[in-house]
Amino acid sequence: MGICMSCFKASSADVTPPSVDVTVKRQQMAEAAERRIKQQEIRGIKDPGKVKRLQQRRDELDKELAAGGPQPEPNLRWQVQ
């Protein structure tokens, strides 16, 4: 008889956990979203530090070119042989 009665008891999986506060849930979801974004940024990159350094260097060069004003056009040479 004890065997049959165990079938009618609620299992631990059926019991709902106490509800989590809405603000805590939102904070956890925001943190998870930030982690996913970070993982997508570095996906497929062996050295993320190198990529950041190259990107900073490119930005610095762009700023220098923009600050220097218009670049003079180089003289064109026609070579006829």
From TrEMBL:
Keyword list, A-Z: Lipoprotein, Myristate, Palmitate
GO biological process: negative regulation of ERAD pathway; negative regulation of retrograde protein transport, ER to cytosol; negative regulation of VCP-NPL4-UFD1 AAA ATPase complex assembly; positive regulation of autophagy
Entry's Gene Ontology cellular component terms: endoplasmic reticulum membrane
Pfam families: SVIP
Region (Disordered): 58-81
Protein name: Small VCP/p97-interacting protein
